[in-house]
Specification:
This protein is of the alpha/beta class and 314 residues long. Strand 1 and strand 2 form a beta hairpin. Helix 3 crosses helix 4 and helix 3 runs parallel beside helix 5.
């Protein structure tokens, strides 16, 4: 595998007067990558370009060091794809469908059946593998789509909105499965508009808006610490803010948050998150005899990152 899993240089795609992608340039390393953007941002168009299903108006894209325009078949041998929409035949069993994809990937029939069984077990469909897909729940169909995408042992799998339509339990289970793919040496590019999903499982993020790059980088670097503390003593307490300010600590009342037993807790924001500041905060809380429910370093969210970078790009 090359150093870059995916490389885009000036990638542009126009459909008549509509610009789906506009000069997209970015590089991502192997790993778990979140492709983030609102509906219509260009995520599906990028997937189609990566798969060689459409040609760019200008620019180029490489997958694992292979230019898609030069060798689209070679790229597709390395890529698995899980579409957002239902795409599997409803009258066929999961075992038949997934083993067929394994055969298409070059495995003999017997080996394909065994690989399909192993992969269906991995995604939690072992006991349902001989049921027709038409009898599956939404979550089970998503798992079957994931199974067909990885049964060929791809270098990278493209997941288009993999948690769409899932309830909270199904969403958690799907994200856990995606996290596990990295342990099998499979990189993931997960297209989604759900930033919480990306923050949970992805180590890299590519954000696009209206076909243009907003920001790309490691999730850890983008979720930088803000240099402030969040203090929760259970209720609004003006004496706490005043006492902190008297000690030279910059403090102010923050947002209301949901606390235990349906009660509202009021946060206090403190500038600085070093040891000295923490010691001052703890000393003031002890002096006032207040309970301490939470003391944590603030950090940016991916929502903050997207909004701040999108604003600068305007």
């Amino acid at each position: 595998m090359t150093a870059d899993l995916l490389r885009m240089e000036g990638l542009t795609k126009r459909y008549g007067g509509t610009v789906a992608l506009d000069g997209l340039t970015a590089q991502v390393r192997p790993g778990l990558i979140g492709l983030v953007g609102a509906n219509g941002a260009g995520k599906t168009t990028l997937f189609r370009l990566v798969l060689g299903l459409t040609q760019p108006t200008s620019g180029r894209v490489e997958v694992d060091g292979i230019d898609v325009a030069d060798d689209p078949i070679g790229v597709r041998r390395r890529v698995g794809y899980m579409p957002e929409h239902d795409c599997l035949p409803l009258d066929q069993t999961a075992a038949d469908v997934v083993s067929t994809f394994a055969e298409m990937g070059g495995l003999p029939v017997r080996d394909a059946r065994q690989r399909a069984s192993d992969v269906l077990d991995l995604v939690g469909l072992d006991e349902a593998r001989f049921r027709s897909i038409g009898t599956f729940s939404t979550g089970m169909r998503q798992r079957a789509k994931l199974a067909q995408a990885i049964v060929g042992g791809p270098v990278v799998v493209l997941l288009d909105e993999p948690t769409a339509g899932l309830d909270p339990v199904g969403r958690d289970e799907m994200l856990d499965l995606i996290s596990r793919l990295g342990t099998f040496g499979i990189s993931v590019i997960m297209s989604t508009h759900l930033l919480d999903d990306v923050a949970r499982v992805c180590d890299q993020v590519v954000m696009i808006s209206a076909g243009s790059l907003v920001v790309a980088g490691s999730t850890e670097a983008l979720l930088a610490r803000t240099g402030r503390l969040l203090v929760d003593v259970g209720r609004r307490h003006p004496d706490l803010v005043g006492a902190l300010q008297a000690r030279g600590v910059r403090a102010r009342s923050g947002d209301d948050v949901a606390g235990d037993h349906g009660l509202t807790h009021d946060l206090v924001e403190v500038d600085g998150d070093g040891d000295a500041t923490v010691d001052e905060v703890l000393a003031v809380i002890a002096d006032l005899g207040l309970p301490l429910y939470r003391l944590s370093s603030g950090s940016t969210s991916l929502d903050d990152v997207f909004l701040s970078h999108a604003e600068r790009a305007r």
